[in-house]
Amino acid sequence: MRFAACILLLFAFIGCRSKPSEPPKPGAPDAAPPSSSAEPPRPAISDKFFVASNAMQTWIYERPDMASRKIGYLRAGAVTKSSEKPVPGAGCSEGFFPVDPAGYVCVGQGATRSNKSEVVRASTRRPNFDARFPYMYGIVKSASPMYARLPDKAALEANEPDLDRHMKYWLGDEKAGAGYAQEIWMDGRPGTPPSPKTAFEQSTTDADRVPWYLAGGRQTLNLSGLITAKDMIVAATTKRRNGLAFVDSFLFEGRRYNVTTDLLVVPADRLRPIRGSDFHGFEIPRDADFPFAIIRKEGAHHYRYEKGALSDAGEIAWRSAVALTGKQAFFKGRLHFETKDHSYVSDQDASRLDPAKKMPGWGAQGEKWIDINITKQTLVAYEGTKAVFATLVSSGEAGLGDPGTTRSTARGIFRIHTKHVSATMDSEVVGEEFELRDIPYVQYFQEGYALHAAYWHDSFGKPRSHGCVNLSPEDARRLFFWTEPALPSGWHGVMRALTGTVVFAHQ
Prior knowledge:
This protein has helices at 118-122, 153-159, 163-172, 196-201, 361-364, 473-480, and strands at 50-53, 58-61, 70-74, 79-81, 96-98, 104-106, 111-112, 136-140, 145-147, 234-237, 243-252, 255-260, 265-267, 271-273, 282-283, 292-295, 301-306, 309-315, 321-331, 334-339, 344-346, 350-353, 368-373, 378-383, 386-392, 412-415, 418-425, 436-446, 449-453, 469-471, 493-495, 502-506. It is mainly beta. It folds into 4 domains: 50-122; 136-273, no CATH class; 291-353, SH3 type barrels, CATH 2.30.30.40; 361-506, L,D-transpeptidase catalytic domain-like (Beta Barrel).
């Protein structure tokens, strides 16, 4: 069978609230991003005994044994309470330590007990679960170096020979260049972003924002594993249309630079900031109740049936939820749904939602489950027999084709087994021809098929992916914190087979 939908590049392994509204806050806020002080700030650690992740991925084992099952992982900078002494185990020379609420990490294998770890200190920016995205995001508009240190004039001339021409064009482009969405790089900080043109002309540096691990010409920490020499300036090169996530942004000598999750530096003027879709689904019955339809086509109209003919009643709001009477009729060979204001909407423009016709056993037993209709491009979340949430999705672009040979979504009954706050996916299999790093809120339910947020499009309600089920950022976030297995506080990923939330995908 083709491993079709989504393939993790970064990870190699085999393997709650009452309704999906606002996600729970996973704990006290972390320390603010570090400043450029001579002594790096130490992480805010409230527990006397702790372990911290000093790698992009620190495995959590079910038992204190390197051969035992992996149940999750931490990402760099995560800190969790632990014990004073190691637990006896196999395969870890520096000892296993328990993590909260379960499992063990191997100190020396991506974990540390020192609050002097530079990687831990540099990674105090944790995923933000109160925002639309866990990080800042951008799409690469033109190929760019990923710098291992802040470039001086000579480095810019050597590695970006087109810089003068590029900056002139970018600064003058108010629609897609310097005038577009620069507030994204403020990362939620109050105030208006500085004018890129003024900053460039005045060679402005945010002295209090330049991270300490880049200050004074210092080479960044090698969290990426791409830095192979002490004199290295460029660690990698982005490709046009790469999607990247960022944990920091600042001005240096007139130019804005962003810091990736693995601490490399990318010029912000080479990126299109990502705001993400404003769309989100509907809580049932608060926002909408059965039967209702979601208008999935922009510019759709509704119609009156009078004197044996349909008359145009005007445009109906895109992605709105419309209450229905339950009646439907065919006009000119096309199915139409009657609304409660006695107009009609076409099934070509709207998806009708009704309660499950036959309640499956897992629902009757009170389990949470997710119903995905490929034909309608809809998702309904249930708590037992009660529907609590509904939204539009983008499934595989091949519709009802064979998932083994086409870009379609696997159909059947599955359970969510692996969840990532963010994960990098292969460009050839998520519906876009570029690499997408740190895709938010990924939930795998069958081999490479997953529910996840899409930050690169706003086509929810239309087939779009290469097999995964794309959700709007807000919907993906809500469902991520509603489904099982639950993600423990501080963890970046969790794995648990056989007992996760049911996903029923059908035509």
